Amino acid sequence: MKQSPELRAIQENMQTGSLAAYGFLGMDTRSLADILRDDDERVASLVLTHGAIADRLQYFYEAGQEKLGRAEKVDTQYDVLVEEHKGGIPCPFRDNFTAAKAVITVTDRRSGRTLVWSALNIHMIRAHGFYEGRGAKFRVEPEAVAELLF
Questions:
Q1: Is 100 helix (H, G, I), strand (E, B) or coil?
Q2: CA angle centred on 146, ends 30 and 81, rounded to 5°
Q3: Less CB within 10 Å around the terminal CB: N or C of the chain?
Q4: Where are the domains of the chain?
Q5: Each residue of 15-40: pLDDT tens digit?
Q6: Residue 65 has what DSSP assignment?
Q7: H helices of 27-92, where?
Q8: What is the pTM of this model?
Q9: Which of 143, 147, 100, 146 has the alpha carbon at shortest distance from 121?
């Protein structure tokens, strides 16, 4: 897929050290346009939407905030831990959105599987259909969300 100059500039903004010490692309060498297209296709194949996935991630984020820094039992099946740090992190898509520096960890008590994401992931998925690049520290795999949280 051809990448616009705007997406090229955003992709440069996502490199390690620009906005986040860990970067948003990991080891992914694809263009941002290709990453977005591939994740659109993956989400569609799951018969989900970016909004539905973001809503589910937001649900667990809000549920875990009650006991910030300590695990919270949610829906009898999940343990949710929300860890927040001072300050915020701006969205690399330059849309004037800043998220809390929060990391959410959800463990399914039945399977033992764990998912980890950031508060910024929720916004980037909902607003931009961006799950981060392959190998990125906070890459959210749509299939893992569907299997574990739906």
A1: strand
A2: 95
A3: C
A4: 5-149
A5: 866 556 678 999 999 999 999 999 99
A6: G
A7: 32-45, 50-64
A8: 0.92
A9: 100
